[in-house]
Design goal:
The complex is a heterotrimer of chains A (388), B (338) and C (137). Chain A is an alpha/beta fold and 388 residues long. In chain A, helix 3 crosses helix 12 and helix 6 crosses helix 9. Chain A contains 12 helices and 11 strands. Chain A has helices at residues 22-36, 64-71, 88-102, 121-128, 144-159, 163-177, 191-196, 259-272, 289-298, 307-312, 329-333, 340-353; strands at 4-11, 48-52, 78-82, 107-114, 199-202, 204-205, 215-223, 235-244, 281-283, 368-375, 380-387. Chain A folds into 2 domains: 4-120 and 213-235, Thiolase/Chalcone synthase (Peroxisomal Thiolase, Chain A, domain 1, 3-Layer(aba) Sandwich); 128-211 and 236-387, Thiolase/Chalcone synthase (Peroxisomal Thiolase, Chain A, domain 1, 3-Layer(aba) Sandwich), CATH 3.40.47.10. Chain A is globular. The relative contact order of chain A is 0.20. Chain B has 338 residues and is α/β, with parallel strands linked by helices. Chain B folds into 2 domains: 4-164 and 311-333, 3-Layer(aba) Sandwich (Peroxisomal Thiolase, Chain A, domain 1), CATH 3.40.47; 167-305, 3-Layer(aba) Sandwich (Peroxisomal Thiolase, Chain A, domain 1). Chain B is built from 10 helices and 12 strands. Chain B has helices at residues 19-26, 46-60, 86-93, 110-124, 197-219, 237-246, 259-262, 269-280, 315-320, 327-333, and strands spanning 4-11, 15-18, 36-39, 70-74, 100-104, 130-136, 153-160, 166-175, 228-231, 286-290, 297-305, 323-324. A 9-stranded mixed beta sheet of chain B has the order 5-4-6-7-1-8-11-10-9, sandwiched between helices. Chain B has a 3-stranded mixed beta sheet with strand order 3-2-12. In chain B, strand 4 (70-74), helix 3 and strand 5 form a beta-alpha-beta unit. In chain B, helix 2 (46-60) crosses helix 3 and helix 5 crosses helix 6. The longest helix of chain B has 23 residues, at 197-219. Chain C has 137 residues and is an alpha+beta fold. In chain C, 15% of the residues lie in helices and 41% in strands. The model of chain C has no long low-confidence stretch (mean pLDDT 95). Classes of the chains: A alpha/beta (388), B alpha/beta (338), C alpha+beta (137). Chains in contact: A-C, B-C. The A-C interface holds A 122, 125-126, 129-130, 134-143, 145-146, 149-151, 153-154, 157, 198-204, 246, 248-251, 255 and C 1-2, 4, 8, 12, 33, 39, 59-74, 76, 82-83, 85-87, 94-99, 110, 121-122, 129, 131.
Amino acid sequence: MKKVAIVGAGQSRYGEFPDKGIKELFFEAYNDMIKSVDKGVDPKRIRAAYVGNLGSGGFQLGNMSALVSEFVGLPYIHTVRVENACASGGYAIVSAVMDVLSGAHDVVIAGGVEKMTDVSSIKQKYWLGVSGDTEYERLAGTTFAGLYALIAHRHMHQFGTKREHLSAVAVKNHKNGAQNPKAQFQKEITLEKAMKSPYVAYPLNLFDCCSTTDGASSVLICDAEIAKEFTDTPVYVAGFGTSSDYLAIHDRPDTVALEGTKRAGRQAYDMAGLTPRDIDLAEVHDCFTIAELLAYEDLEFCKKGEAGQFVEEGHTQIDGDKPVNASGGLKSKGHPIGSTGTGQAYEMFNQLRGTVQKPARQVKDVEVGLVHNVGGSGGTVSVSILRR
Amino acid sequence: MAFGISGYGIAIPRLRVKKEDYVKAWGSFQAAGVKEKSVMGFDEDVLTLAAKVSLKAMASVPVAPDKITRFALASTSAPYVEKLLSGTVITNVGIPNGAFVSDHTTSSRAGTEAMLAGIEHVKSDSTGWAVVAAADAPRASMWSPLEHGLGAGAAGFVISNDNVIAEFEGHTTYACEHFGERFRPSDDDLIHDLNVKKFAQSSLVGTTTRAATSLMNQLGVKPEDYAHVVIQQPDARAPSAIAKKLGFAETLLTSSSVVAELGDLGAASTPVALAAALDSAKVGERILVISYGSGAASDALSFKVVNDRKAQPGVRAEIDRKEYIDYVQYLKLKGAIR
Amino acid sequence: MAHVSIPMYWRTIPQRYRMVGQKCKKCGSVNFPPKGVCKYCNESSEFDEVNLSGKGTVHTFVLIGAGGAPPEFAEQEKAGGSYPVAIVELEEGPKIIGQIADADLKTVKIGMAVSTELRKIYNEEGVIRYGFKFVPQ
């Protein structure tokens, strides 16, 4: 079977940029990616682009991938918008990898872009609330914070997970994000501040939730056989997996696990011939602090129900034995929906090659990294394992 | 053949606002004898309350919803001026789509109007089953003294030949032309009153006493034959004035007096009061019901209690289930702050 | 607004007004709301219609507040304050999400018994959308 490599990765700054739309943001990430290719790449060699995007406020729901592709100088290619809510970027990567594996194209882009701060707060809530089960969950009066709060409350009830454990995730990720010049919030927070912030969806408070963010990212993916044409230090896709789940949480047998993560993770581990112990660094989907705790358990970094203790004991700190979200995660880096999955791959590409911007964030001796991207409250999940 | 009320139930929204809060806000409180009143929650309206009392009434018989052949709904504060209201209720409670339904909406007398619709149905078809639901929460401008007394509540009844607890004895209606008192123009969702007090009082007392007197004459009964008199309660003063004029002792009003704790329930006023009377009435006792609606009309109905089965939980328990809100919360819930 | 159209809402009236579910003819489990294929055995598309009691216990809940309500529910939150949304495990087996009405917020607990009542859910385009909410039993 063919092997697939990543030979370049770029990311725009994440944050609020009134002067930039999806075209400009995507161009910024694309240029950053092109620059990152050690031996250079002729854009003419790029034959396909998979672009993750939720909708960017609905202004270009149709054909948006053609729009951003031609804007960056890639007309006349195979391009498609990939939409699986917050997992759009992760699925863009998997789609690009499958394309190369199929032999259809040898050099392709997986990218993602979202412009979230252009719309009124009312419209923002509309776009953010319709990736769960709209008919029942949304019309019960919940937002996404509400859905994750339902999971968090049950997790606390069932396993004794504490408020401190949720806040510990926020504190850790802000600490890492403070070292990320492209993060939206480059500021550490104290445990006390995180614990005392106002509830938005009890038991989740403001600091349990990620923000709305503008941003884009892009990775260059190719057939491993030609990777050395672009760089001497490519990153390889060792395994990947995806799984959908029942969209509504109430339809799932287990409220306190994301079955999609468990299955996607298992597929990725099996394909790579690796175990959870082999993962040196993970970028997981922490749209809410509880989501990171679920990921520890569902990706088998710790036992079911023990994620609270796992974060409390420091295992997932940058210098811990299982570092998670060295980039700052969605929580601190920001969560521009369509870009999040490819942004995680951008971080992992640099971590594996030892090229992150600040040494304080560089995890030592990273051989194998895992990226985990969740759509909505777990309706879709993608996991990819990358290695040097 | 004897027929009448086979079951009943009431529903009172659990929120209450006190007279004192009005005094604090406006300097006075204009509803005589009202101490506090019930208020609908944000997610309640007359249709949700009507559904609740229909279910309770059917459960108290008990009768399965699919046996019901007639449904009548009464309210002056329905959410739509045009669109079938009964459809929401029968679909929720499971009354068949083939049942004959009617909405009675233009008068605080609509509660007894709907009851009589149910009674007429069972009278004409002895196998028929009628469910009647009266639910109301009248609305007036917060600037109007008329608004002070307006409460919210509902009562439902099952009328049939089976399991009768209060046999229907007869009824009369007195209808006439009157105006200026409690009216809602078609372009307004709030009720008005021109406050011509004596004129309005003469309509209230004149219309109701004519209906009641005519009924007692027709049935050949006297005021002494009644143990309970249930009269429309826009405030606490109105039923007293009417009872006095008809020669009833004030004590006969006690069992059905709910206005002090709930306020003016509009079209649900006499139905809720009747349910309260039924809760304490004993076998053999007679109940006289007198409704009133501006414009003006009054229905008088006579019942004789034949079974001491009571709806559970009782009216008292429903009235006692409450949570107080302040006047600002009241304004928000009433949609008075825009 | 989440664009749940009038016809789309209308199609769920049996569920929202009367808790109509499906009993799988193969495995006997009760699906609510309805599925194309039974979510328990994942094998059968043949069902008997069943009316659920609406009774159940709170499996988990959230308090929506501090301006955190979606646009359709913003007015409710402003006028009526924070509101609980629960996943309730119904006595027939399935779990379903819904608001809890008429409850003192301090008394809402995982495990508490609830039953359904018809309530106004929200209003769009001048049309009131009714449906079940849970109330303490």
